[in-house]
Structure formats: C-alpha cells, structure tokens
Amino acid sequence: MGWVPSGESWLGGGGGEEGTTAFTLEQGLWCGIYTVTQEQWHAVMGNNPSHFNGKPKNPVEMVSWNDVHVFLQKLNALSSRIGFLYRLPTADEWEYIIRGGHIPKSQSQYHYYFASSKTDLTSVGSNDLSSTQANFDGNHPAGFGKRGPDLETTSGVGNYLPNPLGMYDLHGNVWEWTSTEEGSDRVFCGGSWGSHGADCEASSRLGVDPDYRGSLGFRVLAVPVGG
C-alpha cells in the first residue's frame, strides 16, 4: 500500500477549468497501489468471478458493491494489521487520490494525472489521453491524444505509469467502486478497458445498483479504526 498524506484538493476541474469544490483529507491514509487482483480476491474469497479469469495479476472484475463488502468483512477478520480497518474510498477521497493528493487550485484544471516516470513521481497533468498511457478503448482518445491500441481486455496491474502518489491504473483498466451512495445507487469512478478516454477523467463518476456486476473492480484503503 502507498501513503496518501492529508491536505486539500479541488474537485471537478479539467479541460482548462479549475475545480470548484474544495475537499480536505483531514487524516492521511494508506491506499492500495493497485486494484485488488484476481489472486488476492481468490485468497480471501476462494473463487474468481472475473470475466477475464485465469490472469492472477489482472484486476478482479465482475464483482458487485455488495460482493466487495463481503470481501472487506472477511479481509478485516483475517487481517493482522492491528488498529486498522480496510474499506472502500469515498468518491471524493478517490478523486483526491487520482489527482495526486494535495494540489493547488491551478493544478485542478486537468483531467488526467500521471508521474513523469515510475521512479520520478513529479506530477504531469494533462487534458489529453492516449491508450499508450492507460488501458481504455484506444480508438477513442481524449483531447489531442493519439489513437492507440485497444486491448479489448483488462491489463495486468502496474503496466502503465503511476500517478503522482505512485498509484497505478486509476485511469482505465476497470471502473472502481467507492463507498459513496446516491439514493439507491453506488458510485464508481475512473473508466475501464472498454471506455472512451473521456470516461477516464479524474472527475468521472457514475452510479448503479449495488448488485450490478460488470467491468468493475476496486482498491482498498487502510485507515485507523474509527477513520
């Protein structure tokens, strides 16, 4: 897991427009560097529901929001990390993380956030996206991004550049569940292998029934008990 320091970010920005909603992460937390993989899911649940199964290092998918909460209950029961609780991020926490944590308002004008390299986490914000940068439908890049490969499947985690916090695959690969509820729906973010580039924006959010299963995975946070 990677450390996410406390701080303030601006949500909802992109395309040259700064974010209009301030969000403060009051307490730092630990976040999964990768989405939960098929082998990790199997280790806890004893099965692999993924459509693209048989790929241990690929993200688990075809898991509903309710399925994920069963996983989290079991993970917390198995965990030896005393004093910490595993949970989903809220949608606002998720956007804070994808944008690289604490950023000035001027840096919220971008849709996509990557590090310069896997060893240099200097933030590089952009409003353009090609499928050489993230796993999505490369026939539909975003902004001035060039057309690229369309894998038509998930990719192994960590195959693309991380974001400025060292987290991988927040843009594309699988949509990610959050804990946020909107009426009877549950919110998910980030785009997937079959999405257009515009669906992979940092502020991209959709909602669906908590029993829905599709190109949806998740990553976990570890927070102090009560956090």
Structural overview:
- The protein has 227 residues and is of the alpha+beta class.
- The chain has one domain (2-215): paralog of FGE (formylglycine-generating enzyme).
- The chain has 3 helices and 12 strands.
- The protein has helices at residues 38-45, 65-78, 91-98, and strands spanning 2-4, 7-11, 21-25, 29-31, 84-87, 112-115, 123-126, 175-182, 185-189, 205-208, 216-217, 221-224.
- Strands 1-4-12-5 form a 4-stranded antiparallel β-sheet. The protein has a 4-stranded mixed β-sheet with strand order 10-9-8-11.
- The chain starts with a strand and ends with a strand.
- The relative contact order is 0.22.
Keywords, separated by commas or semicolons:
227 residues, alpha+beta, four-stranded mixed beta sheet, 3 helices
Q: Strand portion, in percent?
A: 15-25%
- Write out the CATH superfamily name: paralog of FGE (formylglycine-generating enzyme)
Domain count: 1
Mean pLDDT metric:
96
CATH architecture classification name: Alpha-Beta Complex
Question: How many helices does DSSP assign?
Answer: 3
- Distance between the amino and carboxyl termini: 17 Å
Roughly how many Å is the radius of gyration? 16 Å
Poorly predicted runs? none
Helix content: 10-25%
Strand ordering within the main sheet: 1-4-12-5
CATH class: Alpha Beta
CATH topology: paralog of FGE (formylglycine-generating enzyme)
> Could you give the count of β-strands?
12
Structural class: alpha+beta
